UniProtKB/TrEMBL annotation, chain A:
Protein name (Swiss-Prot/TrEMBL): Alginate export domain-containing protein
Organism encoding this protein: Spiribacter insolitus
From TrEMBL, chain B:
Keyword entries, A-Z: Lipoprotein, Signal
Residue stretches in coiled coil: none
Originating species: Spiribacter insolitus
Signal peptide stretch: 1-22
Protein name: Outer membrane lipoprotein-sorting protein
Gene3D superfamilies from the UniProt entry: Lipoprotein localisation LolA/LolB/LppX (2.50.20.10)
Domain Uncharacterized protein TP-0789 residue range list: 76-255
């Protein structure tokens, strides 16, 4: 826990500014009293039947969105990052939708005042046109969020971009998925096929040291920016393109899927020995999954083989090939109480060659040949689902580290939602996946007004 | 208790209403017909729905959705697609159900912000449907074979059925009573009781319209007598036998809802 003087500084300092700003905006936007008196006359408020987007097909843009304020405070001092907060922002998200013939155009953009990176930031999350191309084919073209696979916050065949910086620093789950510029074609028949083409590589929004500290194998300690990790971009249209394929079908309640991907690693996992520059190496993957009801719950199995540029595993500047296996089970033992369990194995191939070719100083940080990860999700809904308590736990017995995500969400009304939670990292060795993030452990608070 | 209706009245009523107004005495048959009338009108159906959820402190929430339903077997398996349009934070969420009578349903949820197709464990059907006072089971029906049914009264208007669960551990009630309209076979009121006979939950149909020849409850109120909270659900723009194709009850409709079929004419 923080010493008292740190705590008092928080209260007097800018920590609550984001939440207060949001509160102020909400107060202006939400004339509750007026709403209540209007409701006495019409209990449905302004909800005329005619404005249902599905039934009263309307021309022109429909706008939705939210404004929220969020702050996430580190629970330890981070010697590498001179900021007590991983998050401190007031954010506006606007989402527009309009029919264009038989198609739907969607735009979703975020603008926020960022107290950690000091400035106004923006992010275009969606700008796409989607619809039915033929009786059997759908198209979705433009900037979009893409997801597939059976894991719960664990991804094997989903090699679409993630934003772990947002995820770890206390933003909403929605921000774990980063947008990709893509053409998605979906064919529906005896077997369904999804084909996704990304004209330029869509990497993760990975940790650069800007907001979060991480472990540097070169320096042998936890570091942060400056210098920021600045890998070589893969942004040449066409030449740096990626494709992803899914073939799937449900037969008698069992969901079968096969996957293929040919593109680049989402992380800058390779180093150019001549310049010392990091870059995303080639990555090809093949996989399969199965999801079905079992023992009164849902069970899933998934596997993927990652094949990279270093087939013999003896180049220390390139990641080795990997097999990944996932097994999961989720059920509802009591009403409104769900429990989920997952086991993930990451099997690094040619492990001996990898270790043998690493510089002696980096050998301790080499990945284990077998990395085991267990996850558990507990979700408990109370007060007729107005309150959701949850805890997601990542625990790796082989890395001896953990990552806890406790969270409480309270729905004050259809417009106003409050969230309190944490991202807590820890473990034995500074260089493992979760332990390296220990100094970024944070508790966050968010208040959101949706409109 | 027995009621003897004049024969002439029966004949006239039968001719006018065209429904089976003849007095039924078999509770299983009454319950079966009520189930068909409530949940199986036509071979398929489409309706817009909105809910007003009021808790014991008079806090109000709303839900609005379009419901598509298709029967696989009359009185048996069904397929549902529920597309939410309100409130803002639930908009675009799609819920798909393959209802299996006598075994667990298959349920999927699509969360648009994450482009995530989540499969939901069948779990407890007697939990709140999207935060309302209605349970999943109230929306899609409770298997008639799950309870023992007794006809405890027949009035001029209603058959009164008392039902007790065959597996009491699976449910929160000790028994429930249903008032079934003899004319339409629609359950107009259901009261759920605890062991001592105390009523803690009440469903009432407050509006009925005949749509495409099927009497339909177009306003239904569910009260939680413990908290004083209640939910009113209104159905509008209901249509039956619209010819919904099987293929729209699929993963395709989660990411890209079938606009042609959701749109009201």
């Amino acid at each position: 826990m923080k010493p008292l003087d740190r705590m008092t500084r928080d209260w007097s300092g800018g920590c609550w500014r984001s939440v207060l700003t949001a509160l102020l905006v909400i107060a202006v936007l939400s004339p509750l009293k007026a709403q209540e008196s209007a409701e006495a006359e019409d209990p449905w408020g302004d909800e005329a039947w005619g404005d249902d987007p599905w039934t009263g097909e309307k021309a022109g843009w429909q706008w939705y969105g939210f404004i929220d304020g969020a702050t996430a405070s580190r629970i330890h001092d981070d010697p590498a990052v001179g900021d007590d907060y991983t998050l401190n922002e007031t954010r506006l998200q606007l989402e527009g939708e309009r029919p264009i013939g038989d198609y739907t155009a969607t735009v979703k953009a975020d603008v926020w005042i960022d107290g950690v990176e000091d400035g106004v930031r923006g992010d275009l999350r969606e700008a796409a046109l989607a619809g039915r191309l033929t009786e059997r084919m759908d198209i979705d073209v433009g900037r979009q969020i893409l997801t597939w696979g059976t894991g719960d916050l664990v991804f094997l065949n989903d090699l679409f971009p993630k934003d772990y910086v947002s995820f770890f620093s206390g933003r909403d789950d929605e921000y774990l998925k980063a947008p990709a510029d893509a053409l998605r074609l979906s064919w529906f028949g005896d077997v369904n096929v999804d084909f996704v083409w990304m004209p330029r590589a869509a990497p993760n929004r990975y940790i650069t040291g800007e907001r979060l500290s991480y472990f540097s194998v070169v320096e042998g300690r936890r570091v942060a920016a400056p210098p920021e990790i600045d890998p070589r971009e893969r942004d040449s249209l066409g030449r740096d393109s990626e494709v992803a394929l899914r073939v799937y079908q449900t037969i008698d309640s069992v969901e079968y899927a096969g996957y293929a991907y040919h593109g680049y690693d989402n992380q800058p996992s390779a180093v150019d020995p001549s310049t010392g520059e990091a870059y995303s190496p080639r990555l090809t993957s093949l996989g399969a999954s199965l999801r079905r009801p079992v023992l009164g719950g849902i069970g899933n199995l998934e596997t993927a083989y990652y094949s990279g540029e270093d087939s013999s595993g003896d180049d220390p500047n390139l990641p080795n090939d990997q097999w990944r296996f996932l097994g999961g089970f989720e059920n509802e033992p009591f009403a409104d109480f769900t429990l989920g369990w997952q086991y993930l194995l990451e099997w690094t191939r040619d492990h001996d060659a990898l270790v043998a070719n690493l510089p002696a100083a980096q050998r301790p940080y080499a990945p284990d040949e077998y990395r085991h990860l267990l996850t558990n999700r507990i979700t408990w809904q109370l007060l007729r689902q107005d309150l959701t308590l949850s805890l997601f736990t990542f625990y790796s017995p082989s890395d001896a580290d953990y990552y806890l995500r406790p969270r409480a969400i309270y729905r004050f009304s259809d417009q106003l939602t409050g969230t309190a939670g944490g991202n807590l990292f820890g473990g034995a060795d500074d260089w493992t996946f979760h332990t390296q993030l220990e100094d970024n452990s944070n508790l966050y608070l968010r208040l959101r007004y949706s409109f | 208790m027995k009621h003897f209706l004049p024969l002439t009245w029966l004949v006239v009523a039968g001719l006018v209403a065209g429904t089976a107004s003849a007095q039924m005495t078999d509770p299983e048959q009454i319950v079966e017909e009520a189930n068909i009338a409530s949940y199986y009108a036509g071979d398929d159906g489409r309706s817009a729905a909105r809910m007003l959820i009021v808790d014991g402190n008079d806090n109000r929430q709303r839900r609005q959705f379009t419901l598509l339903r298709k029967d696989v077997v009359e009185g048996g398996d069904q397929r549902y697609l529920v597309v939410f349009s309100r409130p803002a934070d639930i908009r675009g969420t799609v819920f798909r159900v393959e209802k299996h009578v006598g075994e667990s349903d298959d349920r999927w949820l699509y969360l648009p912000a994450l482009d995530l197709v989540k499969r939901i464990a069948a779990g407890d059907k007697r939990t709140s449907f999207v935060g309302s006072h209605f349970f999943y089971e109230d929306i899609s029906g409770r298997g008639t074979e799950e309870d023992e049914h007794t006809l405890i009264d027949t009035t001029d208007e209603y058959y009164v059925i008392e039902s007790t669960p065959k597996d009491p551990d699976q449910v929160e009630f000790a028994r429930y009573r249903t008032w079934i309209d003899r004319e339409t076979m629609l359950p107009m009121r259901t009261e759920y009781q605890r062991d001592a006979g105390e009523v803690y939950r009440r469903m009432e149909v407050t509006e009925v319209e005949t749509i495409d020849g099927y009497p339909t409850g177009t306003e239904v109120r569910m009260e939680d007598l413990d908290s004083g909270g209640y939910t009113v659900t209104q159905f509008r723009f209901s249509e039956y036998d619209v010819g919904l194709p099987d293929r729209i009850f699929s993963e395709r409709s989660l990411r890209n809802p079938p606009r042609d079929w959701l749109r009201r004419d």
